[in-house]
Write a structure and sequence with these properties.
single chain; 215 residues; 6-stranded mixed beta sheet; 11 helices; 48% helix; binds zinc ion
Length: 215
Protein backbone atom coordinates (compact mmCIF):
# COMPACT_ATOMS: atom_id res chain seq x y z
CA UNK A 1 0.00 0.00 0.00
CA UNK A 2 1.41 3.44 -0.83
CA UNK A 3 2.21 5.55 2.22
CA UNK A 4 -0.48 8.11 1.36
CA UNK A 5 -3.20 5.42 1.20
CA UNK A 6 -2.17 4.01 4.56
CA UNK A 7 -2.40 7.58 5.80
CA UNK A 8 -6.10 7.72 4.89
CA UNK A 9 -6.78 4.70 7.08
CA UNK A 10 -4.87 6.29 9.95
CA UNK A 11 -6.78 9.55 9.44
CA UNK A 12 -10.11 7.73 9.57
CA UNK A 13 -9.30 5.66 12.65
CA UNK A 14 -7.22 8.08 14.71
CA UNK A 15 -7.57 11.71 13.57
CA UNK A 16 -11.17 11.97 12.35
CA UNK A 17 -12.82 10.73 15.57
CA UNK A 18 -11.05 13.47 17.55
CA UNK A 19 -12.37 16.17 15.20
CA UNK A 20 -15.76 14.64 14.42
CA UNK A 21 -17.68 17.69 15.66
CA UNK A 22 -15.63 20.02 13.43
CA UNK A 23 -16.20 17.90 10.33
CA UNK A 24 -19.93 17.58 11.03
CA UNK A 25 -20.13 21.35 11.42
CA UNK A 26 -18.20 21.84 8.14
CA UNK A 27 -20.50 19.50 6.24
CA UNK A 28 -23.11 22.30 6.45
CA UNK A 29 -20.93 24.82 4.57
CA UNK A 30 -17.72 26.80 4.49
CA UNK A 31 -16.79 30.38 5.37
CA UNK A 32 -13.01 30.55 4.91
CA UNK A 33 -11.09 33.58 6.17
CA UNK A 34 -8.90 33.69 3.08
CA UNK A 35 -8.12 32.57 -0.44
CA UNK A 36 -4.56 31.24 -0.17
CA UNK A 37 -2.71 31.06 -3.49
CA UNK A 38 0.60 29.25 -3.37
CA UNK A 39 2.92 26.98 -5.36
CA UNK A 40 2.19 23.28 -5.91
CA UNK A 41 5.60 22.45 -4.43
CA UNK A 42 5.26 19.40 -2.15
CA UNK A 43 7.30 21.06 0.58
CA UNK A 44 4.63 23.66 1.33
CA UNK A 45 1.98 22.61 3.85
CA UNK A 46 -0.48 25.48 4.04
CA UNK A 47 -2.39 24.31 7.12
CA UNK A 48 0.84 23.69 9.03
CA UNK A 49 2.42 27.03 8.12
CA UNK A 50 -0.70 29.03 9.01
CA UNK A 51 -1.87 26.72 11.82
CA UNK A 52 -5.36 26.68 10.37
CA UNK A 53 -8.04 24.00 10.57
CA UNK A 54 -10.11 22.58 7.71
CA UNK A 55 -12.59 25.19 6.54
CA UNK A 56 -10.40 28.19 7.31
CA UNK A 57 -8.51 28.63 4.01
CA UNK A 58 -9.68 28.20 0.41
CA UNK A 59 -6.48 27.04 -1.30
CA UNK A 60 -5.44 27.37 -4.95
CA UNK A 61 -2.09 25.97 -5.99
CA UNK A 62 -0.12 25.95 -9.22
CA UNK A 63 3.48 26.01 -10.38
CA UNK A 64 4.89 29.39 -9.36
CA UNK A 65 1.82 30.68 -7.41
CA UNK A 66 0.74 32.51 -10.52
CA UNK A 67 -2.48 34.44 -11.16
CA UNK A 68 -3.02 34.99 -14.88
CA UNK A 69 -4.40 38.49 -15.56
CA UNK A 70 -8.14 38.45 -16.24
CA UNK A 71 -9.26 37.70 -19.80
CA UNK A 72 -12.45 36.33 -21.33
CA UNK A 73 -10.77 32.91 -21.38
CA UNK A 74 -11.92 30.67 -18.53
CA UNK A 75 -9.15 28.92 -16.61
CA UNK A 76 -8.97 27.09 -13.30
CA UNK A 77 -7.49 30.05 -11.45
CA UNK A 78 -10.03 32.50 -12.88
CA UNK A 79 -12.97 30.34 -11.83
CA UNK A 80 -11.56 29.60 -8.37
CA UNK A 81 -10.83 33.28 -7.70
CA UNK A 82 -14.32 34.25 -8.84
CA UNK A 83 -15.91 31.62 -6.60
CA UNK A 84 -13.83 32.50 -3.53
CA UNK A 85 -14.29 36.25 -3.91
CA UNK A 86 -17.86 36.56 -5.22
CA UNK A 87 -19.57 33.50 -3.70
CA UNK A 88 -17.62 32.75 -0.51
CA UNK A 89 -16.79 36.44 0.00
CA UNK A 90 -13.38 35.76 1.54
CA UNK A 91 -12.10 38.88 3.31
CA UNK A 92 -8.44 38.17 2.48
CA UNK A 93 -6.37 36.89 -0.47
CA UNK A 94 -2.80 35.75 0.20
CA UNK A 95 -0.33 35.07 -2.61
CA UNK A 96 2.50 33.06 -1.09
CA UNK A 97 5.74 32.32 -2.93
CA UNK A 98 8.54 30.22 -1.49
CA UNK A 99 12.31 29.71 -1.50
CA UNK A 100 13.87 27.01 -3.71
CA UNK A 101 10.96 27.43 -6.15
CA UNK A 102 11.62 25.33 -9.27
CA UNK A 103 9.13 27.38 -11.26
CA UNK A 104 10.92 30.64 -10.46
CA UNK A 105 14.29 29.08 -11.27
CA UNK A 106 12.79 28.08 -14.62
CA UNK A 107 11.39 31.58 -15.17
CA UNK A 108 14.92 32.98 -14.88
CA UNK A 109 16.12 30.54 -17.52
CA UNK A 110 13.27 29.88 -19.96
CA UNK A 111 15.66 28.47 -22.58
CA UNK A 112 16.19 25.50 -20.27
CA UNK A 113 12.48 24.64 -20.46
CA UNK A 114 12.24 23.66 -24.12
CA UNK A 115 11.15 20.13 -23.13
CA UNK A 116 8.34 21.55 -20.95
CA UNK A 117 6.32 23.72 -23.34
CA UNK A 118 3.35 24.23 -21.02
CA UNK A 119 5.54 25.17 -18.06
CA UNK A 120 7.44 27.57 -20.29
CA UNK A 121 4.26 29.25 -21.51
CA UNK A 122 2.77 29.38 -17.99
CA UNK A 123 5.88 31.13 -16.64
CA UNK A 124 5.32 33.87 -19.19
CA UNK A 125 2.92 35.28 -16.56
CA UNK A 126 6.02 36.05 -14.47
CA UNK A 127 7.89 37.86 -17.26
CA UNK A 128 7.52 41.37 -15.82
CA UNK A 129 9.01 40.18 -12.51
CA UNK A 130 11.90 38.48 -14.33
CA UNK A 131 12.58 41.62 -16.37
CA UNK A 132 12.65 43.79 -13.23
CA UNK A 133 15.13 41.42 -11.56
CA UNK A 134 17.34 41.16 -14.64
CA UNK A 135 17.57 44.96 -14.71
CA UNK A 136 17.76 45.87 -10.99
CA UNK A 137 19.66 42.75 -9.95
CA UNK A 138 22.40 42.99 -12.57
CA UNK A 139 25.17 43.46 -10.00
CA UNK A 140 23.76 41.11 -7.35
CA UNK A 141 24.59 37.48 -6.63
CA UNK A 142 22.42 34.65 -7.99
CA UNK A 143 20.99 34.09 -4.49
CA UNK A 144 20.08 37.76 -4.09
CA UNK A 145 18.52 37.82 -7.56
CA UNK A 146 16.40 34.77 -6.73
CA UNK A 147 15.24 36.34 -3.46
CA UNK A 148 14.30 39.46 -5.42
CA UNK A 149 12.43 37.40 -8.01
CA UNK A 150 10.38 35.51 -5.40
CA UNK A 151 9.21 38.86 -4.01
CA UNK A 152 8.70 40.57 -7.38
CA UNK A 153 6.70 37.60 -8.66
CA UNK A 154 4.37 37.74 -5.65
CA UNK A 155 3.91 41.51 -6.15
CA UNK A 156 3.21 40.96 -9.87
CA UNK A 157 0.57 38.33 -9.18
CA UNK A 158 -1.12 40.75 -6.75
CA UNK A 159 -1.28 43.24 -9.63
CA UNK A 160 -2.82 40.55 -11.85
CA UNK A 161 -5.38 39.77 -9.13
CA UNK A 162 -6.65 43.35 -9.32
CA UNK A 163 -7.58 42.83 -12.99
CA UNK A 164 -10.21 40.24 -12.01
CA UNK A 165 -13.54 42.08 -11.90
CA UNK A 166 -14.77 40.44 -8.70
CA UNK A 167 -11.52 41.34 -6.93
CA UNK A 168 -11.54 44.90 -8.29
CA UNK A 169 -15.12 45.40 -7.14
CA UNK A 170 -14.51 44.06 -3.62
CA UNK A 171 -11.34 46.17 -3.30
CA UNK A 172 -13.32 49.25 -4.36
CA UNK A 173 -15.91 48.42 -1.73
CA UNK A 174 -13.12 48.17 0.82
CA UNK A 175 -13.96 44.75 2.24
CA UNK A 176 -11.15 42.72 0.65
CA UNK A 177 -7.47 42.85 1.55
CA UNK A 178 -4.54 41.49 -0.47
CA UNK A 179 -1.38 40.03 1.09
CA UNK A 180 1.96 39.11 -0.52
CA UNK A 181 4.09 36.53 1.31
CA UNK A 182 7.27 34.52 0.75
CA UNK A 183 7.82 31.35 2.79
CA UNK A 184 11.36 30.08 3.50
CA UNK A 185 11.35 26.27 3.38
CA UNK A 186 14.67 25.93 5.21
CA UNK A 187 14.03 28.31 8.12
CA UNK A 188 10.24 28.56 8.42
CA UNK A 189 10.46 32.34 8.06
CA UNK A 190 7.52 34.00 6.31
CA UNK A 191 8.03 37.50 4.94
CA UNK A 192 5.05 39.72 4.19
CA UNK A 193 4.88 42.73 1.93
CA UNK A 194 3.73 46.14 3.07
CA UNK A 195 1.80 48.54 0.85
CA UNK A 196 4.91 49.68 -1.01
CA UNK A 197 6.32 46.20 -1.63
CA UNK A 198 8.86 45.99 1.19
CA UNK A 199 8.97 42.56 2.79
CA UNK A 200 9.37 42.09 6.57
CA UNK A 201 8.69 39.10 8.87
CA UNK A 202 5.00 38.36 9.46
CA UNK A 203 5.50 38.94 13.20
CA UNK A 204 6.54 42.54 12.44
CA UNK A 205 4.23 43.21 9.50
CA UNK A 206 1.12 42.34 11.49
CA UNK A 207 2.40 43.29 14.98
CA UNK A 208 -0.21 46.00 15.54
CA UNK A 209 -3.05 43.70 14.53
CA UNK A 210 -1.77 40.80 16.63
CA UNK A 211 -1.79 43.14 19.60
CA UNK A 212 -5.28 44.41 18.86
CA UNK A 213 -6.76 40.91 18.57
CA UNK A 214 -4.44 39.40 21.25
CA UNK A 215 -3.39 36.52 18.99
ZN1 LIG B 1 7.44 26.68 -6.30
Amino acid sequence: MPKFAAGVVRFQTQVFPEKRALFEHLSAGQAPEGLFITCSDSRIETAMITQTEPGELFVCRNAGNIVPPHTQFTGGMTASIEFAVAALKVPHIIVCGHTECGAMKGAMNLEGLDGLPHVKEWLGYSKAAVDIVKELGKDKSDAERMKMLLQQNVLLQLVHLRTHPTVAMRLAKGDLRLHGWVYDIKTGEVLASDDVGTFTPVSERYAAEFKKHSY
